[in-house]
């Protein structure tokens, strides 16, 4: 993975040079991981930003808190690691300004991701400095995944499958929602641990599955991103699991959703869920090189219309080291799909605040279509009959 990160940085440097950018200040965690191969677990939300400075014709520089520097140095291929401290003359503002120099030239940033505290410092320290958004430049690189990246995402898919199996196995009438969420965390962690060693770079990768489980049951199923609570499951309840903030491995994120019914399913609920599944499958069937992102969404929308439903959100999104990358499968996105692109593809319906139909999978675009990165039955599923 580190060699891949080094090669990606070299390509990024080439593109910076072609674009006339003198230095790029990278602050987004996923972008730093993509280029420098490391990440932390406490960052700018604690007032501690980390930077990767990339110039077209010089070795890159990492700027990180002193307390994080030992782990950072062990994880990254970047040799020049500068440190800063919370107080005194060696604060991050001083170290960053020193690394940029008095006249940084044309500076590239990820405009939508740069922390406000960093942007404010740059404006104050370098009056008149024009900051250029290099997000499209880096985003174009991240659209197409290498075979090594896809291999990691396939492992993430296996982890997600183990999580979903545990979720289904924990469902029973009278059990509280949070019990299923606990089962998901344990199963996913154990599966991830089986892919790791305690040697080299991998020794710094935690197998722990974390974040709050997105889960709703009963009448709450129309509340798409509610979290697992103490509500007890009842017969006939639909139960929805979304792993979009949990299914990840080595920083690569997937989208993965399923809906189950406890003991029985009403005709109306089955109709809604079937429509969501069929719309998702129509979208996936349309994915291949040469088609546009919006045409994939249109394939799903046609199914919704035929069944008398509407959907309120996009059909899918590009996935990788960030939860949301480009392009998106929605009206207005005319990006042409290419082999190596990876997407989370959803089917979703909410009806009158009472019912929800949900399904989500991750896929990779191939030379003649697409392959699933996540595998689990795609049908109306009733548990505990």
Can you walk me through this structure?
The chain has 385 residues and is of the alpha+beta class. The protein contains 10 helices and 17 strands. It has helices spanning 2-18, 29-36, 69-75, 92-100, 116-125, 135-143, 147-169, 177-193, 267-286, 293-307, and strands at residues 23-26, 51-55, 58-65, 80-84, 107-109, 131-133, 214-217, 238-242, 248-249, 252-253, 257-262, 316-318, 325-329, 342-351, 355-365, 370-372, 381-383. The strands form 4 sheets. The protein has a 6-stranded mixed β-sheet, with helices on both faces. The chain has a 5-stranded antiparallel β-sheet with strand order 13-12-14-15-16. Helix 3 (69-75) links the parallel strand 3 (58-65) and strand 4 (80-84). Helix 1 packs across helix 2, helix 7 runs antiparallel to helix 8 and helix 9 runs antiparallel to helix 10. The termini are far apart.
